[in-house]
Design brief:
The chain is mainly α. It folds into 4 domains: 12-67, no CATH class; 87-248, no CATH class; 301-363, Ankyrin repeat-containing domain (Serine Threonine Protein Phosphatase 5, Tetratricopeptide repeat), CATH 1.25.40.20; 407-503, Alpha Horseshoe (Serine Threonine Protein Phosphatase 5, Tetratricopeptide repeat), CATH 1.25.40.20. The chain has helices at residues 12-27, 31-40, 54-64, 70-83, 97-105, 115-127, 136-141, 145-154, 170-176, 185-197, 217-222, 238-247, 255-261, 268-275, 284-289, 296-309, 313-321, 345-351, 355-363, 373-382, 386-395, 399-406, 410-417, 420-428, 450-456, 460-468, 484-490, 494-500, and strands at residues 84-85, 205-208, 215-216, 331-332, 340-341. The protein has a 3-stranded mixed β-sheet with strand order 1-2-3. It has a two-stranded antiparallel ribbon with strand order 4-5. Helix 23 packs antiparallel against helix 24 (420-428). It starts with 11 loop residues before the first helix and ends in an 11-residue tail after the last helix. The model has no long low-confidence stretch (mean pLDDT 93).
Length: 511
């Protein structure tokens, strides 16, 4: 598992300098350098480090960034150089009207995305309707087949040329365009066919900020993401356009699509992708470019874990129906929202109080979980089953103390996923109402409090109960340094903002 993040604009020279610096530090006996060597080198620390080789230092640097070897790291850097894109470019105005229209019309998967931006694109095109006649990327973003056809007739190679403010190819502009929700499907498909017939790659994509999960054409078709469907919606003709790309050969095993769409319960994207082989094959051209990328089976296991932990019962059933492994425990390294902690899907379902999912998996043949008093206590609490909680406590007098030690931030997860009664029950058991944790994953990481989540969810009842239980409205989260009131106001949750405003201490003026 990587211990260092990849920089936004990685260059091989910087990694070579890191390796040389590590080589010198190891030879000098630096304790921190020796610790890095012990952690990431497959062989034991040598008795004599004076001859520590540069190749060994390169291996350590590669493994620190999640690559099995130096050659794999170098190969990835070459892939980034060829396919990389920086989201910061979405905020930089273009010098020409056609380029500016492309910038404003398309999703950039940055904080710039949203209706206001697309409105500016519509106004610009209305003011300068001819800007699409000389620029194939603008013509594609506007879905104007006559202009695209004319430009390709002049120069067919334009279909595969990168350009514009983002350095994207024309088909990418068509697929990521969102400025016109009423664009006719006939125009969209006509432009897509023209570009594909002229050589556009249906698996085209870019590595945003050097992240290893490519944003492909399919990613743009299906949309969504961490900013939600309002600011990163799917393409207005996602099904027709997605089908066209899949029939043209796009690989359905699209990790970024699966991630972007996992936050909401709609499974229409999965249904279409399964029709074209999601979960099968070798992972396609992007897996070939990035061997460290997840396999199709691993992608779907991540989806299963998320669905189990977030009460997405229909998605669990769909994944099971399509052969996703629901029996084995989740093991190995993974991101915080898909940790390999050794639990099975059934154990996770019970732990989150979802007896429906657990019963379905058991009925399909999943092995029953091994009893664990702490898990039984938490599962009973998440079902808000007080009698079951008391039965577990009676049989295991230390179970509450053990649970608090194991899951000190559990109230945060409960506030984002369970009922108000569960939160009240947990606080009554001694869990800290002001504990820091994560609401998007059941892991212990001090990000925010339960009150932050009730505020951003607009949950007045839970917010009121948390305050009654002693929740501190002045606590600031550890990522954005914001109070629950700040969260409510940022996401326009007027109901909880009105409740929190009178009890939140105003910041002290620096004047």
């Amino acid at each position: 598992m990587p211990t260092l993040d990849m920089p936004d604009r990685p260059h091989p020279d910087s990694f070579r300098k890191q390796a040389r610096a590590l080589q010198r530090a190891v030879r000098a006996g630096d304790a921190a350098a020796l610790a890095r060597l012990v952690r990431h080198h497959p062989r034991a620390l040598p008795d004599d480090t004076s001859g520590f080789r540069l190749s060994a230092a390169q291996l350590v640097v590669a493994r620190e960034h999640g690559f099995a070897s130096w050659s794999r790291l170098v190969r990835y850097l070459e892939t980034v150089a060829e396919h990389g894109w920086e989201t910061r470019l979405g905020a930089v105005p273009a010098d020409d009207p056609a380029g500016e229209f492309c910038r404003l019309a398309c999703l950039t998967y940055s904080r710039e995305d949203g209706p206001e931006r697309w409105g500016r694109a519509r106004r610009l095109l209305a003011q300068q309707p001819g800007l699409t006649t000389g620029d194939i990327r603008a013509a594609a973003a506007a879905a104007r087949p006559d202009d695209v056809a004319g430009l390709l007739a002049e120069e067919p190679g334009r279909a595969v040329e990168r350009g514009g403010p983002s350095g994207w190819r024309p088909l990418f502009h068509l697929v990521y365009s969102r400025f016109d929700p009423d664009v006719p499907v006939e125009r969209v498909l006509a432009v897509a066919r023209l570009l594909l017939d002229a050589g556009a790659d249906p698996d085209d994509g870019y590595l945003f900020d050097a992240l290893p999960s490519p944003f492909t054409l399919l990613t743009g078709v299906f949309g969504h993401g961490e900013l939600g469907s309002g600011r990163q919606p799917r393409h207005p003709h996602w099904r027709e356009l997605g089908t066209l790309l899949l029939e043209a050969g796009a690989d359905p095993n699209d990790a970024q699509t699966l991630y972007n769409r996992m936050f909401e319960p709609d499974d229409s994207h999965l249904e279409l992708l399964f029709e074209y082989g999601l979960g099968t094959g070798d992972g396609g051209p992007w897996k070939a470019r990035i061997p460290e990328a997840a396999t199709p089976a691993e992608m779907l296991r991540v989806q299963l874990r998320w669905a189990v932990e977030h009460h997405q019962s229909a998605r669990v059933r769909l994944l099971v129906e399509h052969g996703v492994d629901f029996r084995s425990p989740f093991e190995g390294d993974g991101p915080a929202w898909s940790p390999g902690d050794g639990r099975t899907p059934v154990e996770l379902a019970r732990l989150n109080g979802d007896t429906g999912i657990a019963d379905h998996l058991l009925a399909r043949g999943a092995p029953p979980p091994v009893a664990d008093p702490v898990d039984e206590l938490i599962a009973a609490a998440f079902r808000a089953d007080r009698s079951a909680v008391e039965r577990v406590r009676a049989g295991h007098p230390e179970v509450v103390a053990d649970a608090r030690r194991r899951r000190p931030g559990l109230v945060v997860w409960a506030a984002s996923r369970a009922s108000t009664e569960t939160v009240v029950l947990l606080v009554g058991l001694g869990f800290d109402v002001n504990a820091y944790g994560r609401g998007d994953a059941p892991v212990e990481e001090p990000w925010e409090t339960a009150l932050h989540h009730s505020a951003v969810d607009g949950d007045v009842e839970l917010t009121r109960r948390l305050l009654d239980l002693g929740a501190d409205p002045d606590l600031r989260d550890r990522r954005f340094d914001a109070t629950p009131l700040d969260w409510a106001r940022h996401f326009h949750r007027s109901s909880t903002a009105a409740l929190l405003a009178p009890v939140t201490t105003a910041p002290v003026s620096e004047d």
